[in-house]
Here is the input.
Amino acid sequence: MRATIGLAFLLCSAAAPALAQGAGSLEARLAALEAEVARLRGELQAARAAAPAAAAAPQGAGTGAQAASAEEIAALEKRVAATEAREGFRVGGTTFRAGGFVKLWTAYSVYGDGNPAPGALVRDFWLPQQVPVGGVRSTHFSAHAKQTRLWLSGTATVDGAPLTGYVEVDFQTAPGTQGTARTTNGYNLALRRATISWRGFTAGQDWSTFQNVGALPETTDFIGPTEGTVFVRQPLVRWTTKLGKAANLALAAENPITSSISSLSPALAESDDAAFPDLVLKLSGRLGPAEVSLAGLAHDVTVSDGTAKDSAFGWGLSLAGRVPFGPSSRHDMRFMLTGGEGIGHYVGLNFAPDGVFTNGRVHPVGLVAGFAALKLGWTPAIRSTVMASFQEVDWPDVQLPATANKAAWSVAGNIFATPVKGLDVGLELRHGEREIVNGARGQLDRVEFVTRYTF
Here is the structure.
C-alpha cells in the first residue's frame, strides 16, 4: 500500500512543472461582461438620441450624428437585453445574478447483504460506508427532489475590480428536522457555499482548495465516484494568482477538523481542537489539451477526549484533471488520484477517519483513492459516461474495530439527453462494494433515473 501511494505521488510531482492555465479568472470575465454592457448601453443611448433629431431636421440638413434606423435600434435593444440577461439585474451599483436547478432523483436499489437503516443517506445517493454487510438481501425504490439547488450572487466594481458575494444552498445535506415522506416531503435548506471574492482573494465557505471540482464526471448521482473523490466544503481564506501567463497558483488556510475512531468502535468522532489551520497549495493549468491540477495539503490531526489530547502531522497530494478530445471536444477523460495520511475526512465523505485514537495517542490513517471517467458525446444533445472508482485504507498497526472500513469500489455507466435547452434526463446503472477489516463484504446494485432543469 505505501509503495502504491509513493509511486502515485512521484507521478504527481513529475507532472507539476508542465502545468499551465488556459481559462481566464472569474474576475476578468465579470469585468469584461460589465464593460460590454456599458458599451452597448452607450451605443443604444446615442442611437435613441440621434433618431428624434434626424426626424425633426429639414430634409437634407445634418444632425451632427449618424442617425440609426428603427431596425438598427431594435437590433441594438435586443443585444443589450441579451447581454443584460447574462449579466443579471442591477440594484444601485450592484449586479445580482441567480440560478440553480430543479432535480428529481429516482432509484431502484438491491442491497446484497442487508437492509440500510431508515433515513440512511445511502438511500439518497451512493455512499459506500453505509452499504450493509452481513445481512439478508433487500430491495428498495426511492424518489426525492432534495438535490434541487439555488444560488445568488451580487457583484459591484470596487477600485476597478469586481467584488462578489456568492451564496449557494440545497436540500440534500440539511441537518435537523425534516418533513415526512408520508405527507409533505418537506426538507430544510442547507448552506453549501457562501463566499466573498475580490482581487484574487476568497473568504467564506467554499470547495476546499485541495479539490478539483471541474474533474467530477456527469452522473445521475449526487457525487458519483464517491469513494475516489476529494469532496469537502468548508470555511477558508484563499489567494489565487497567475504565475506569468502560464499557470495559476492558489494558497489557502482552511478549517482543521479531525475525524477519528477508537480501537473499540468505528463510530466517527469529530474534534475541533487543532492549533493550526489546514494549509493547501494548488497549481492548476494546461498540459497540452488537458486541464490539470496538482494540490498538496498539510493537516493538523488533533484529537481530545476531555482528559487526553494528542496531535500528529497529516499530509496529502491530489492530481486531477480533464482531457477533452474528439469533434468539438465533445468527448473527455476525467480523473483524480489522491493519497496521504491523516486526510480521511477529505476523501469519499469520510470513508476512512483521519486517525485512530487509543491510549491517549492519535495514529494517522493512510489511504489511496481515485477514479477515472470517460465521457462520449454521441451528438450535441446525447452523451454517455462510464466511470470506475476506488479507495483503499492503510490502517496503522494498532487494535481496530472489526467493522471499520477497509476498501470500497464502484463502476457505473449512464446516458444523458438534453431534448431542449436547460432540460436533462439521465439513466444510470451502478454496482458498488464495501469491505470491512474482518473481511466481510457488502454490495449494492442500483438503477437511477433523473430529470433536471437548470436555469
Summary: The chain has one domain: 94-454.
